[in-house]
Write a structure and sequence with these properties.
By secondary structure, this protein is an all-beta fold. Helix content is about 0%, strand content about 35%. A four-stranded antiparallel beta sheet has the order 1-2-3-4, with no helix packed on it. A hairpin with a 5-residue loop joins strand 1 and strand 2.
Length: about 70
């Protein structure tokens, strides 16, 4: 489950025969041992287009939708 570009919750389609995967990196803290003073960790995000399903509308079937994940 994820929130799409319109803020609607959608089910991401993943089955035994069709898998979708993304790679995400999440900042654990704004400062690290290698970075102090004027630098810091800033979370970035990337849009992914994935097959999804709207649980509130069976008639829509499976469709492509956009989702934002930490990168």
């Amino acid at each position: 489950w994820a929130s799409n570009s319109a803020g609607k919750i959608r089910a991401i389609v993943n089955t035994q025969h069709f898998e979708q995967a993304i790679h995400q990196e999440v900042c654990s803290r704004p400062r690290t041992g290698r970075c102090s003073g004027d630098c810091g960790c800033e979370q970035k995000y990337k849009w992914h287009r994935l097959l999804a399903y709207d649980p509130d509308n069976d008639c829509k079937g499976i469709f492509m939708d956009w989702f934002l994940f930490p990168s």
